[in-house]
Write a structure and sequence with these properties.
Chain lengths: 398, 42
């Protein structure tokens, strides 16, 4: 019975596959196998068109006409077949130029990239930054500055050592430079050239490119420093759940207990590490063009694990032209950077105008004890306990 | 404050240094893309 059922299901599945295949191949006999009006209309509607009838039609040297024959000069491939082979990347090309992408003569992913870069990327990226700025400003006027509730003690606790502050400012300074120069590069053609003209932008663009390319190393170095120095303090702790559930006490009296880094700071830390690493890797791919190709491999993995299907992206392309690898690297680099910039705007806000006493942690490294008790009570207790046990240890025996 | 300025100075030093090193590391477009028969410098 079970066998019969399996057999029936298999038969049905084959039937449905067969019918799907039959449906997928349109009749192109009227054009001799070339694309039909319906193909063109479908492409203009934005439908997915199976291009394999063109990408595979690149001639067959085995059935080549004799070279003495009128049609034999191209060795079994007609002109359109040769152009198709060039366009779909299957032509055997030899180039005197030894660059990594020298044998890619045609790649049509560029327009898609350009339109996305000038359109949704610039629009939504700009909106995200402006929206974040407006939200923070509104927050400031609604909530005001978060002040130290209790009486100040006049005593300070060392929160960050010099090397920690150095790593932080190396990361922060380089990120701000990279952010500004990145925005100049992205918005140059659409915003800056119309506003300031070609000459002024040319000067700005050359400078921005130099800064962006060379400051990136300080960012990567600082990212590694920050990770090594602070990862131990940013591992999840049960106090984080309470802290996050209470929203850090930002709208209430008093603050939930926290260790050296509270739940919000841990979110910032992991955002910086993960997004910063992603930006660094794609940045390296852009710094050394065509040397680091990772998107085709990533897409293949996303397809294999069914992630692309689950996200509604369909089957992602697993073969990309070298230029397309660069285009995807640029888009991902910019998208992730926009997200990180929005997060960092909030971080800058809370570390400066948003909270009394917060800047000292990175300024002098010494924070007011009362501030520390209100925002990082568990950490203060740990520091106090360490100091006391340390002083006990160092007290000479009598 | 002093540490912050020191870090900013380090950013400048790293930027200039990396530019010098990368310029000599053979990763310029000319080195990567042009064949030996091409003389772009001349």
């Amino acid at each position: 019975m079970l066998r019969a059922l399996i057999a029936l299901m298999l038969t049905l599945s084959f039937l449905s596959t067969a019918s799907a295949q039959e449906k997928a191949v349109p009749d192109r006999s009227a054009t001799g196998g070339a694309q039909t009006l319906e193909d063109i209309m479908a492409r203009q509607r934005g439908d997915d068109v199976d291009n394999s009838f063109r990408s595979d039609a690149t001639g067959n040297p085995d059935s080549a006409a004799d070279t003495a024959n009128q049609l034999g000069t191209l060795g079994g491939a007609s002109d359109p077949e040769l152009w198709r082979a060039l366009r779909f990347g299957s032509a055997d090309i030899t180039a005197s130029n030894n660059g990594p992408a020298a044998t890619t003569l045609v790649q049509d992913g560029g327009m898609k990239w350009l339109k996305f870069r000038e359109g949704p990327l610039a629009k939504y990226g700009g909106d995200l930054l402006m929206g974040t700025f407006i939200l923070l400003t509104a927050f400031y006027f609604i909530r005001g500055r978060i002040t130290i509730d209790g009486a100040k003690t006049g005593r300070t606790i060392t929160r960050f050592k010099a090397i920690e502050r150095f790593g932080h400012w190396l990361l922060a300074g380089s990120f701000i430079f990279l952010g500004i120069t990145g925005l100049i590069s992205l918005f140059g053609r659409k915003v800056l050239i119309p506003a300031f003209g070609h000459e002024a932008f040319a000067f700005l663009a050359v400078g921005s490119k130099w800064i962006h390319n060379n400051i990136s190393w300080a960012f990567m170095l600082a990212l590694a420093m920050i990770f090594v120095m602070w990862v131990i303090h940013n591992l999840p702790h049960k106090s984080d759940i309470n802290w996050l559930l209470k929203g850090g006490g930002i709208f209430s009296k008093g603050h939930p207990p926290a260790k050296k880094f509270n739940g919000g700071q841990k979110l910032i830390f992991w955002s910086v590490i993960l997004l910063g690493t992603s930006i660094s890797v794609t940045g390296l791919a852009l710094l050394f063009p065509f040397e680091i190709n990772m998107f085709a491999a990533t897409f293949a993995k996303l397809n294999a694990f069914g992630i692309s299907g689950a996200l509604g992206l369909g089957e992602l392309r697993e073969t990309l032209a070298p230029h397309e690898e660069m285009q995807y690297a640029q888009l991902w680099h910019a998208i992730v950077s926009f997200v990180l910039m929005a997060i960092i705007l909030a971080h800058i806000y809370i570390g400066t105008v948003g909270m009394e006493g917060a800047y000292d942690a990175m300024g002098s490294g010494e924070v007011e004890e009362q501030w520390a008790r209100e925002h990082h009570s568990i950490w203060v207790d740990e520091v106090m306990a360490d100091t006391q046990s340390g002083s006990t240890k160092t007290t000479p025996a009598e | 404050m002093k540490i912050m300025l020191l870090a900013f100075l380090a950013i400048a030093v790293i930027a200039v240094g990396s530019n010098l090193i990368l310029g000599q590391a053979g990763f310029s477009s000319q080195d990567r893309a042009a064949g030996p028969a091409v003389r772009l410098d001349d």
